[in-house]
Design goal:
Blueprint lengths: L9 H4 L3 H21 L7 E2 L2 E2 H27 L8 H25 L8 H25 L1 H5 L7 H4 L15 H4 L6 H6 L3 H29 L5
Antiparallel strand pairs: 1-2
Helix pairs in contact: 2-10, 3-4, 3-10, 4-10
Length: 228
């Protein structure tokens, strides 16, 4: 994408965000309904905080993470922010990503044994999810690297001429970052048999698809000049 082809208006900046926000609001409503229907999601505590508090902390993670990504991606795409901001973007990206993962683990431990399922069966379900996540990580490291995986094509022109990755796990699932990667968040919830952590994992997984539809898909169509 040449600089002359860059969209430069606020309409372009907020393209897709009404859709993303609408989906997120709907998801938060569904989480609240589920909490009322599943009182066991409030059981337990960890690090001095009740499971209800950890669930709220966990819900905040995707909202902050996806807002941070949106701000920097559209800042680069529409406002012309240069690669000089990438270290700040990557720092926030990494911290919020850690927040998302850690909250699910802590909540799963706090709210453990609230899901009526045999622990052996739970582990048998969780382990393949971990294996798929490890395959995804290997594919990212082997075929295009963490920098590009974090959205480097918004900041570095060298990535924009590269085709979308179709190697490793991406040979079988083009959008494995979201469809497969986020299955890893289900693993601790299932392994510890936690209703609340399952609810948080489901919210995370649905929320990232809202990000894809509202932010990433429109951006990729501009950056790579084709439908994705």
């Amino acid at each position: 994408m040449r600089a002359a082809d860059r969209p430069r208006n606020w309409r372009a900046f907020f393209r897709g965000q009404a859709l993303q926000a609408g989906i997120i609001v709907l998801l938060l409503i569904l989480v609240q309904v589920a909490r009322r229907q599943l009182p066991a999601t409030a059981r337990g505590e960890a690090l001095g905080l009740a499971s209800e508090a950890w669930l709220l902390i966990g819900l905040a993670g995707p909202l902050l993470h996806q807002s941070w990504v949106f701000l920097f991606w559209r800042g680069a795409l529409v406002l012309g922010w240069t690669a000089a901001v990438f270290p700040w973007y990557r720092l926030g990206f990494s911290l919020f990503a850690f927040w998302r993962v850690a909250a699910v683990f802590i909540l799963a431990r706090a709210n453990r044994d609230t899901l009526p399922i045999d622990r052996g069966l739970a582990l048998a379900i969780a382990l393949p999810l971990v294996a798929l996540a490890l395959w995804l990580i290997w594919s990212v490291l082997r075929h295009f690297g963490l920098e590009r995986a974090a959205g480097g094509d918004h900041f570095f022109p060298r990535y924009r001429s590269m085709p979308l990755c179709r190697e490793g796990i991406f040979r079988y699932q083009p959008n494995a970052m979201y469809s497969v990667g986020f299955l890893a968040l289900w693993a601790p919830a299932i392994a510890w048999c936690s209703q609340a952590a399952l609810l948080l994992a489901a919210f995370n997984h649905a929320a990232i698809w809202a990000h894809y539809l509202g932010t990433e898909k429109p951006d990729l169509e501009i950056l790579h000049g084709a439908k994705v």
